[in-house]
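Blinded run. Sample ID left blank on purpose so nobody reads anything into the name before looking at the predicted structure. Input follows.
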Amino acid sequence: MPIRQATMTDLESLVALDTIAATSPERQAHIRSWIDAGSCHVVETNGIVAAYGVLTYHFFSTGFIELIMVGAQFRRQGHGAALVAHFKAICQTPKLFTSTNLSNQGMQTLLRSAGFRTSGYIDDLDEGDPEIVFCLRAG
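Blinded prediction complete.
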């Protein structure tokens, strides 16, 4: 699966596949800033942007997968797993973190199958749906 760094020409496609960006100018601004920072990566299928992910180093100067978003028609086809594998390969720190809501069983399964382990919980971000923090150590 081809994965490449996103460019501004991808912005419209990323906004279209993102379930939040269609109605959130704030998320659109985040996508734009992730592209500008070189943190946003896309998966293409037959020349169409099928998924994107964001890898930053703002979390205690450690690699952190901020987001993985797969277009509805491309789910359950390995795009999320490909992005996680890509981020594991390019991460510049010995630990890679990410998080997901307790309700997001699909992402939890994906992360565990990629070798991540539960590292902790954060309450009070989304009412009644704690955030689970995951960590993967290099080596």
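Unblinding after everyone has recorded impressions. The longest helix spans residues 25-37.
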